[in-house]
Amino acid sequence: MADQTHAPMSRRSLFKMIGMAAGSAAMYQAMTDLGFAGESGYSGPVNLQGDPKGASVLILGAGLAGLTAALEMSRAGYKVQVLEYQHKAGGRNISIRGGDTVNELGGFTQHCQFDPGFYINPGPMRIPYHHIALLDYCKRLNVVLEPISIINYNAMIHNTKAFGGKAAYLWASTRALATCQRARVRCSAALGGARHERGIESFLIGVCNGRYFGSGMQLAPMALPDDGRFEVISIDAESKLAFPGAMNRLYTGRHVGTPGVAHFSCDAITMQLVDGRARRVFLLDVDGEPLGGLPLEVTLVPGALTMRAPLPPTSF
Ligand SMILES: Cc1cc2nc3c(=O)[nH]c(=O)nc-3n(C[C@H](O)[C@H](O)[C@H](O)COP(=O)(O)OP(=O)(O)OC[C@H]3O[C@@H](n4cnc5c(N)ncnc54)[C@H](O)[C@@H]3O)c2cc1C
Question: Which of 31, 92, 132 to mutate to test the pocket of ligand 1 (most atoms within 8 A of CB)?
């Protein structure tokens, strides 16, 4: 008789347990880490090959999967029929408007009495930016999309001046932390004509010619705008959970010299990702402007800017 206590656990039960113990965000992260909710590898319309002459196909279910299969197979020349159990197509994708009647699991009947123009999507409502194939189908089939806003500007945290501006930056950093990934970057840096190649594994790399940014963070406390060189700071951490600790020390510059923080100087640097998986999350930010991603080449142009600043106090 099979030993029930040591029966292999299914993926579904594992994810369910993670979801119940730590919430849906942790479950989704686990699915991503295990390769079940990763970024789409879709690179363009599918091109079905074969010899469909005279072949008929019966597809069960008119959800996203069934309708996509039906569309592509009929384009390839198959005779396609779709059988749907419900009274309308769409599967879990459903919008309910005033006047609609919905029979819930369990037998309850709901009569929707929304005013005209109002609706609810009780199933899926968001298309993540990396669902590239779905977005491509929406574009090709002229499906109208609406932006979904999850930001509440009435919340204190979105007041850019709150807590001396730190709250907004900490909030932005926390959001960035949720999506960021450690990336392996190949750097070629030169200083006074001598060039060095190095590999960096990091959550964040700053190429700085000044000390402060944001609300007073000192990413490179040793950086001077007029010394003819950049200070490069890379912040790594064992895990994302350790990263906020390093971020917190940025306000005093105490992060420099701590484990995981690397520093070197240069007057020119090129950087490129070693593996392209971080392409969408390891992005460039130049003084708050999102300017795409790597590869990047930064070169110092001596004397290009004239600076007006008070003279240092003279000593008597
Ligand atoms: C509450 C909720 C929120 C969600 N939110 C999101 C979101 O925000 N973003 C996102 O990307 N995804 C979301 N999803 C997931 C998304 O809805 C599904 O991944 C997607 O709709 C699955 O499509 P499908 O065609 O595989 O299945 P379904 O949409 O379930 O379609 C299956 C169809 O087959 C029919 N059928 C089943 N058996 C038979 C049969 N024997 N004969 C005939 N017909 C049959 C069913 O009636 C149904 O119409 C959400 C899901 C739910 C439930």
Answer: 92
Ligand 1 binding pocket includes 256 (Cβ within 6 Å): no
Residue 234's SS3 state is strand
Q: State the distance from the centre of ligand 1 to the C-alpha of 277, rounded, in angstroms.
A: 28
Query: pLDDT class for 141, splitting at 50, 70, 90?
Result: very high
Q: How many helices (H) and strands (E) does the chain have?
A: 6, 15
Question: How many angstroms separate the alpha carbon of residue 294 from the centre of ligand 1?
Answer: 37
pTM of full prediction above 0.70:
no
The C-alpha atoms of residue 102 and residue 112 are separated, in whole angstroms, by 8
169 and 79 Cβ atoms separated by less than 8 Å: no
Q: pLDDT tens digits for 48-99?
A: 988 888 899 999 999 999 999 999 999 999 999 999 999 889 999 999 999 9
All domains in the chain, ordered by first residue: 165-299 (2.60.200.40)
**Beta-strand pair 56-60/79-83:** parallel
306, 224, 302, 221: which is closest to 255 by C-alpha?
221
